[in-house]
């Protein structure tokens, strides 16, 4: 399976707002490199199918096994499989391969989870789950995610529209959506979460990216929205 080209349609570049990760009831921890900047951080670059359906693993399995066994072997929900994942468990992320990117990754892809404080573990997890399905080499995968983030600076784009981090202000979700569309040229999907007091806040931004991981594209139709609030906060970090 590892040598076969994965069939997927586009990537999501997913970025998280650190203030919204940290002020939840669950909380957060800073990585061993110190408190990250008050800037969006990369969560991952995720291969996706434009339509949920049968994935490559199921196709291979059904060829070998027969239809009934496939359901048993795959983790497909009722909507079908919406993305490939864990395409090559033997392909672990190598620190050597990405050594020239580590300073940038520490800045732009820091972990906020309290599990280990080592961002490398976050990068390794994302590589294993999503990167191994990307048809990109390790260095390419991380370099392209970094380049996309740098090219479209979400924090600056929002600030340019008057959407600045604040613990008191709320912003219309439509103004966030419009600012990103104006600033990047493409619509993004927005995800909200709640702070410890239950206030809705902007948590993650999903931008659609071409199969090479090089440029933003219009998102394929029918992506369920991940934020149904009219007003959201962008909390301080
Ligand atoms: P959650 O259920 O918290 O939204 O997502 C859990 C995990 O499932 C994510 O971290 C990600 O690895 C995967 N995931 C969720 N939504 C998507 C998606 O739309 N595309 C892909 N490729 N993975 C997703
Ligand atoms: P996904 O949601 O991509 O499947 O899972 C993300 C995994 O990476 C989770 O197991 C989570 O604990 C870990 N992780 C480490 N650092 C971070 C972080 O800063 N943000 C998020 N969302 N997950 C992180």
From TrEMBL:
Coiled coil: none annotated. Gene3D superfamilies: Ribonuclease T2-like. PROSITE patterns: RNASE_T2_1, RNASE_T2_2. It comes from the Eukaryota. GO terms for biological process: RNA catabolic process. The active site is at residues 43, 126, 130. One of its GO terms (molecular function) is RNA binding. It holds the Pfam family Ribonuclease_T2. One of its GO terms (cellular component) is extracellular region. SUPFAM superfamilies: Ribonuclease Rh-like (SSF55895). Keywords: Disulfide bond, Signal. Belongs to the RNase T2 family. PANTHER family: OS07G0630400 PROTEIN, RIBONUCLEASE T2. This is Ribonuclease 1-like. It comes from Panicum miliaceum (Proso millet). The lineage of its organism: Eukaryota, Viridiplantae, Streptophyta, Embryophyta, Tracheophyta.
